[in-house]
Design a protein that fits this description.
This protein is an alpha/beta fold and 210 residues long. It has a single domain, classed as TIM Barrel (Alpha-Beta Barrel), CATH 3.20.20.70. Helices cover 40% and strands 15% of the residues. The protein contains nine helices and nine strands. The chain has a seven-stranded parallel sheet. Strands 1-9 form a two-stranded parallel sheet. Helix 3 links the parallel strand 4 and strand 5.
Length: 210
């Protein structure tokens, strides 16, 4: 079932402490929100479950206080414990239909997709609320091979579901992604690694909102 919660257009924020040049995830999230980002995904691969739970609780409250959607990557248990707005899973994680049984009907499920075939299957799955489309370009944040602009073009033309273009997107190539029709775009290292995240986000938003 498609969720009634609206997945906001614009920039989609993802944490990436190892790309943040010494800034904490909390510092990055607070700055992203000040810059105007309306949805944050907590993605943390290297910390213990206990550390992730503690951090997610703090970030969840920051997002709630500011009216920002809060999504947990992979860890459905943590998403439930902190009452996140939803979870984002990959192709090798639990299938969305099983995730739905765990989190209920009022939470968001996002699914990473890397090809037209995966995108079409996800679009036809009523438990998927939005897609990740990518990685568009080579990226250091994921091991998946880049899919190029062809899949993005397919998604724009054929998948009537919210999707986020992701993977290797930077300030220098975001205009190309916008030009191909993406309405929701994620930059990880380019945002969290910026000297001034708030100003970086505002500048990127100005490109999207022209």
């Amino acid at each position: 079932m498609r969720n009634k919660i609206i997945i906001p257009e614009g920039l989609y924020g993802i944490t990436g402490e190892n790309f943040a040049n010494g800034k904490t995830n909390l510092e990055c999230v607070e700055a992203m929100i000040k810059g105007g980002i309306k949805i944050i995904q907590y993605r943390e691969k290297k910390k213990s479950l206990g550390q992730k739970l503690e951090e997610a609780r703090v970030l969840r409250e920051v997002c709630r206080k500011n009216g920002v959607l809060f999504i947990i990557n992979d860890n459905i248990d943590i998403a439930l414990l902190v009452d996140a707005d939803g979870v984002h899973v990959g192709q090798d994680d639990l299938p969305p239909s099983e995730v739905r049984k765990l989190i209920g009907d009022d939470k968001i499920i996002g699914l990473s997709t890397h090809s037209p075939e995966q995108g079409k299957k996800a679009f036809e799955n009523p438990d998927v609320d939005y897609l990740g489309v990518g990685p568009i370009f080579p990226t250091t944040t994921k091991d998946t091979a880049p899919v190029g602009l062809e899949y993005l073009d397919f998604a724009v033309k054929n998948l009537d579901i919210p999707f986020v273009a992701i993977g290797g997107i930077k300030e220098h190539n975001i205009d190309k992604i916008i030009g191909h029709g993406a309405k929701r775009i994620c930059l990880v290292s380019d945002i969290v690694g910026a000297p001034n995240i708030e100003e970086k986000v505002k500048f990127l938003r100005s490109k999207l909102e022209k």
